[in-house]
Design goal:
- The protein contains 10 helices and 9 strands.
- The protein is α+β, with helices and mostly antiparallel strands.
- Strands 6-5-7-8-9 form a 5-stranded antiparallel beta sheet.
- The longest helix is centred in the N-terminal third of the chain and has 24 residues.
- The N and C termini lie far apart (67 Å).
- The C terminus is likely disordered.
Length: 230
């Protein structure tokens, strides 16, 4: 068999294999890559390129290497879905850069983020003054989430019929049936208050997939089995 024909066949076979792997990983990996997924993608791409061009390498051994590298992000994704603690360990947690218009210099230094980079990200969201920001955090996927102060937000219908109050970002106080004590303390509510609210609604912590709470006491739920209440 001519070498160029063998290279074409190996390349097509590897391309199909990578397509199957990408489909198995799901759409999440196609949007924003974590640091670990980024390294895995580079390594798998390097193996695939070498395997398609180097005819001296056995195709079966190369494919086994690719599938082993593919198993790690799949395993990490599975464990992240099953355990909140593992998800925080593997993917990290959001870092708060701005709170009530004040920039946290230590947080910027921790994430190796310069002030110029922060201002650039704010401008991309049409925010030109840091003091206009109530809350800004760097998410685990590298995106900057920004919440403007109430007086700087666009006027909404409910603002006309209610008293203006300070905005506060909701915190996920329950994740995967587990209470996040730190998040509950962040919004300033004690554990007995949350338990009382759950009792009013006849809910068990284990039945809640996600519960979010803000400083105004607005508590919303998303239950398992696609049942929602609030």
């Amino acid at each position: 068999m001519p070498e160029y024909f063998e290279v074409a066949l190996r390349s097509m076979f590897i391309l199909l294999s990578l397509f199957v792997i990408t489909k198995l990983l799901g759409k999440k990996q196609l949007s924003k890559l974590s640091f670990f997924e980024y390294i895995t993608g580079i390594t798998v791409g390097s193996i695939a390129g070498t395997l398609s061009m180097d005819l001296g390498l056995p195709l079966s051994e190369g494919l086994m290497s690719i599938f082993l590298w593919f198993m790690f992000p799949l395993l990490f994704s599975y464990l992240s879905l099953k355990s909140v603690r593992f998800r925080h360990f593997a993917e990290g947690e959001p870092t708060v850069f701005i709170r009530d218009g004040n920039i946290d210099e230590k947080a910027l230094k921790k994430e190796q983020y310069s002030v110029d980079e922060l201002l650039e990200q704010l401008r991309k969201k049409d925010v030109f003054r840091a003091e206009d920001v109530e809350f800004a955090s760097l998410d685990t996927n590298g995106d900057l989430s920004v919440l403007l102060k109430r007086e700087k937000q666009p006027l909404l219908r409910e603002d006309v019929y209610s008293i203006s109050q300070q905005s506060s970002p909701p915190q996920a106080v329950i994740l995967d049936g587990e209470i996040d004590v730190a998040a509950l303390q962040e919004v300033g509510f004690p554990m007995p208050w949350l338990q009382k609210e759950l009792s009013k609604r006849h809910l068990q912590v284990e039945s809640i997939f996600l519960a979010q709470l803000d400083r105004e006491g607005n508590l919303t739920f998303d239950l398992y089995n696609w049942t929602n209440t609030q």
